[in-house]
Amino acid sequence: MxxxxxxDLAHSQLLAYLMAAVLVAILLYLGLDVVLHGxxxxxxxxAIQTTLFGNMETFEEPILIDSLLLQVxxxxxxxxxxxxxxxxxxxxxxxxxxxMKWVLHALFITGLLAPLSLLFAYFLxxxxxxxxxxxxxxxxxxxxxxxxxxxxxxxFR
Length: 157
Description:
Shape: elongated
Helix content: over 70%
Distance between the termini: 20 Å
Structural class: mainly alpha
Number of domains: 1
Largest sheet: none
Radius of gyration: 18 Å
């Protein structure tokens, strides 16, 4: 608890190792989440559009609404979970600069916009498919970079 007040990891190396383990788990989650979405939704624009909207020529059905809502629900929950962990550690270990605020704002915006744009693509327009792809990849890349930027600040002995 002292770390939350003083931001000092020198007194508790165990806390630094625990935070490193959490970061490794987050990095593993981010990588496997991309693989999962590539498998479930598709790994290119044609496959994503076929999954969401179906294909009349090949008699492929679109994804069921309950499956899509379940995926978006899980994505939102896990995104918020990862965002809270990453941002709390990032804020505690980095200096409060304008760059830090921009990184965290971009992380939150892309993280929350990705699952919502998948719903927008399904219900509103196919143009949101590209928005989903960009925000999804940008969110994962930015979260990966933030997690990696925390490691040097943990001061392992």
